[in-house]
Known about the structure:
2 domains, 8 strands, globular, 8-stranded mixed β-sheet, Spore Coat Polysaccharide Biosynthesis Protein SpsA, Chain A
Amino acid sequence: xxxDKDFTFCVxxxxxxxxxxxxxxxIYRLGPGSRILVVDHYSQDETVKIGKSFNAxxxxxxxxxxxxxxxxxxxxxxxxxxxxxxxxxIVRDDFLEIATQILAKDDYGAVxxxxxxxxxxxxxxxxxLVLRTKDFTGxxxxxxxxxxxxYFIQRRLQSSGLSTFYVTDSMIHRSQYRRFxxxxxxxxxxxxxxxxxxxxxxALQTIMLLSLNSRNLxxxxxxxxxxxxxxxxxxxxxxxxxxxxGVSSA
Length: 250
């Protein structure tokens, strides 16, 4: 039997006021007695106020997304840690039940919730991700990365011989456009310990699967352009490694 006290939900935020309330409502509906942690990058909007209205613990950090993920890992003292992006709404009522059933098996170490209608599975997206906290003690994610931070979580899983399970139709991802996102991800990929040809091939596969999952012709056509911008950041990382993670209308 699952209990709310077994879960810490961790939401990394920066100027997430437009989507955070819906995100936290979904969390509260799924686990009303669970611990909610908001790790905020000193937002300038209503993010912190919204987090406090849901009795979330607020931790503010100034280093970036990699550091924020590590703060979550170090601050979750419950049995399970659930990463939820601030623009994600959990919609599958049995998601936690499925996740705990899977993580009761010795060969699985992560459960990923896929967006509605998405069928192509890839990597370790952290939009909705459940981990056993005991598997992630110590320093996992370095502070120098500001994107591709899940590479280090996946590396721990692989070194422990643990697989990832994917649960379909678990959430809605209302992604907001972020200017220079492809360059940002490409630059941080260059910083990875294995940031070579293999990572470029993996990135291409992920971009194509993401676009196909969307079933949107515009996204599919844009995928090669996204990848070329990704390469731009990879080849010349310095201008793109640290960017404002806020929403841009540009």
